[in-house]
Amino acid sequence: MLPSAFDVLGPIMVGPSSSHTAGALRIGRMAAELAPARITAASFTLYNSFAKTAEGHGTAKALVAGVLGMDTDDSRIRHALEIAVERGVDIAFTLIDSASGVHPNTADVTLFCEGDETVVVRGESIGGGRIRLSAIDGAPIEVTGDLPTLFIRHRDQTGVLGRLCTAVAEAGVNIATIRTTRKAPGEDAFTVIESDEVIPVELLEALTEDPEVVYGRVLYVAGARLEAQGTFDGDFTSASSLLALAEEMPGSIGAVMRRREIALVAKDRAANAKASVDASMAKVLAVMEAEVRGTLEKPRPSLGGFLNGEAKRVLEHERALTLLGGDVEGRAMAYAMATIERSDTMGVIVAAPTAGASGIVPGCLIALGEALASAAGLPISPTSALPRVEKALWCAAAIGAIAQGNASVSGAEAGCQAETGVAAAMAAAALSQMLYGSPAVCLNAASIAIANTLGLVCDPALGLVEYPCQMRNAGGVAQAFCAARLALSGVVSPVGLDEVLGAMDSVGAALPASLRETAGGGLAQCPSILARCGGCPRA
Length: 539
Hints:
The protein is an alpha+beta fold.
């Protein structure tokens, strides 16, 4: 099933990286939820991309912040190591930068708890802030947090699993999935039950009364939204099925995505589903406005020192903006760059669909929204005064959901084409919708944008989401404007979006690890960059 709109336009988070900061935090927090007692110490082993870019992406701080119970948008994340000391939690790290057979963004979290209890959790950050737990105490599991989840640690004894299922049924909770693994016959086993509904506290209490149950936890910390079980009216899984819905209803792509989100939320909060999703999107737009304007008003140097007021300098060159591509596109570039500057000072942003590419969608839509508002005699700011901007965000979310569900939005998995390319596609479709392009035109614009960024590598200098990331966000804006202009002019890509995403996925798999967010190749290995860190990428 495709993700929620707010898994694509989200999380709302402290930068600089959705996979390495927000995802890492969620791994730490999910691990902490599994702790059998109060945590006194934590040891982290970071693998591959996590290990190579840990410092520059704030991964170490984010993992600790998660263990301490912080959320992705908590401004205290930058001080997590100091807070751990204040709370008496000892912290240790081990970095392994070339492990085979392990996801690029993997961390093992070992928690030492009161009573000599320990738990070892392996987590993987799979892009856009989403995570997956793949092992607990060496036993393979699969927990994503996409649904409310019951985690039960119990003895491997006859009848235990039957009693657990009976208790869940008697509580009126529908089981979406259930998986049980064990370390060895007769020893500890782990049962993971995902539900379509919120899991009541009373059910957990009843389960833990079983004499064979060691302990139980409710895991719902990943910020994901409840999903409907199976299919439902208005759902889609691809660009072609999205287009069919838009033509059948009829309506814009944004309208189809909003209806889908309402259907998802209605499974949980039927009374106010429309109000809930509209409030969530309004919050996304408000944070985007703040991330764009705040940095332009008061630039700050980034953590790694590559960025310090570039966005404001671009905006101040009004003549260049007007002569080279137009004022709207120039402003969009400056706005996109401002978002990355905010992210790289560990400011609060919206991952759209990732933190590394977070400037493209807000830059494009806010700049065009301002121009449309000005032409209509409406207030330029806030952009939310123009409903077309918010509706366009729904369109962008639909394109991002298709990309995330059928390919990837992770630079560690598929290179920068999966981040900048997908963000440019989201923006291109949304720009087209704002200018009354049909659903077919919007999808065509998205296809052109992906095609024009195919093969783009992810090579962060010093492992930081600064250079060339900020400039690539500006370039992504240009690609979005180009793709929207071509599509609105009737230029049709001979390859549709579904096929283009398939090509992007295969190209990403073919990229060597050195060109997938490890800082091991491309611009990250240029002498000018290596000289800034004594000859080696920052770990």
